[in-house]
Give the backbone structure.
Amino acid sequence: MQRSLWHGAISFGLIYVPVDMYSAAKDGGMALHLLDSRDFAPVGYQRINKTTGKEVDWAHIVKGYEYEKGQYVALSDADFRHANVKATETIEITTFSDAAEIPAMYFETPYYLAPKKGGEKVYSLLRQALQSSGKVAVASFVMRGRQHLCAVAPNQDVLMLLTLRFPQEILPRVVIKGAGGSGKSSVTSAELSMAKKLIEQMSGTFNPSAFEDSYRADLMSRVREKIRKKQTHSLDADPTAAAERPKAQVIDLMEALKNSLKKKATAERNAPKRLAKAKRRA
């Protein structure tokens, strides 16, 4: 059973929904260790007292804010709660908005919200109300000593909490020359029509199970290959270092679009044959 990361209540109007929060995502990266290249022994970290030079146990470590050079205010878990007790225990809904109104750059991390005992009915009420209205609840709460902006949204029979970035955490848009579609980057109506046809031909329902981290599998294949060849301690040169970087080429955009459409059509025609071969091999 997964351990709850936070517990409190969703608040809107005079209604409170007691909930527990659980992780809804995990890191898919490989577990890699840092090694000393001289003997390939693992490299460890120590927490060192900068005054005494001695290692410090976790039991003696607290957080602190440096208000002057070398001067700190120590902060305990109780201090974080006392700063705003309500914020640390409440997901305070301030507005209900259409999900499409929130730009993708604002979304951060997803969590599951589960009703606590006695809160099942009001939890179900909020979920169904959000589903029928097509809205998400925009709220704020405090977790791990930091305030978060968030959106509470229905996902089938559960409520999800998705943390959002604050506006000041979004960097200004990068100025990209030629992105406006003027001058050399201007497109013709025929090119635009062809591009829209390609998009339409490649359109489909988003199916996350159709995707996988293929690079992780490739890297694991490389690891197994080095083990098999007894090259566990060999450090290869970067294969891309000597390779010449591809240069920008002037292409016939219309011709490239036409060929893309033909390639997609050919792939669709051959799909049944590939499926039949796969079934025979199975």
In short: The beta strands are 6-12, 15-23, 63-68, 71-75, 90-98, 107-115, 135-143, 146-155, 158-164.
